[in-house]
Write a structure and sequence with these properties.
Blueprint (H helix, E strand, L loop, with lengths): L7 H19 L4 E2 L1 H8 L3 H9 L11 E2 H12 L5 E6 L3 H12 L4 E8 L8 E2 L2 E5 L3 H8 L3 E4 L3 H13 L4 E4 L12 E4 L2 H9 L5 H19 L5
Parallel strand pairs: 3-4, 3-7, 4-6, 7-8, 8-9
Antiparallel strand pairs: 1-2, 5-6
Helix pairs in contact: 1-4, 2-3
Length: 231
């Protein structure tokens, strides 16, 4: 099956497997089963085997997967066999945190530049990474052949930034702005809305059963009122 036909859900699971394999290799674990990967990832063993089968036969029946070999294959499938240069647009608190994290912790990605509109930030550095003007983006992308970018700007500016990035050749965007971006079909956008993630998490922080019971009672009461005859 051609890689371009692989579903987005499969592609999103691959980095999860990669992270687990990195941790297993650090612990000097040489073999891992689909059941072990299931316990670590939360995905079913059947789903994991199916995901790997899209790309080839990487394991041995009864023995499992060699961690180093499987990691190497996943790295090549994702395209991380070479360090990927990326840029961050937005040098505020979030952009600064993302830049520092990816520079220190994400050894598959190399942040090579940060961009902002604020003249007070332009010319400064985030650790060792220069902050440039947004106006410099087209020339920087062309010179450094940038295909991946991170957007960490306010919602009102995000679409203009996305347009600027894509018209200059960026093909993949990680968007932290709380807005849906409109991009051409060949451009891929992953949205990371921290507000939505936190709000959905709060659902689990209170008494879920009591809250749902109360909600059902409210709905039932509302239906009863609607069924009353009109004078």
């Amino acid at each position: 099956m051609p890689y371009q036909h692989i579903s987005k859900s499969v592609v999103k699971r691959l980095p999860v497997y990669l992270r687990i394999l990195d941790q297993l290799i650090q612990r000097k674990i040489e073999m891992v089963s689909s059941k072990d990967l299931s316990n670590e990832s939360g995905f079913t063993a059947e789903q994991i085997r199916k995901d790997f089968a899209y790309f080839g036969a990487f394991g041995t029946r009864g023995a499992g997967y060699n961690t180093v070999y499987l990691r190497e294959k996943i790295i090549k499938i994702i395209g991380l066999d070479q360090v990927i240069d990326t840029i961050v647009v937005g040098a505020g608190n979030l952009g600064t945190a993302l830049t520092r994290y990816n520079s220190a912790k994400n050894f598959y990605v190399n942040v090579v530049g940060v961009f902002d509109h604020d003249p007070r930030l332009i010319g400064k550095k985030i650790d060792s990474i220069d902050i440039f003007s947004v106006d410099d983006i087209p020339a920087f992308i062309a010179e450094n052949k940038i295909k991946v970018a991170i957007i960490a700007v306010p919602a009102a500016a995000a679409q203009d930034i996305a347009d600027l990035l894509t018209v200059n050749g960026v093909k993949a965007i990680l968007n932290f702005a709380p807005v849906k971006l409109k991009v051409a079909g060949e451009v891929h956008v992953h949205n990371a809305d921290l507000t939505i993630e936190l709000q959905s998490l709060i659902y689990y922080s209170s008494a879920e059963e009591d809250r749902l019971k109360r909600l059902k009672q409210e709905v039932k009461g509302s239906k009863s009122l609607k069924s009353l005859p009109l004078d």
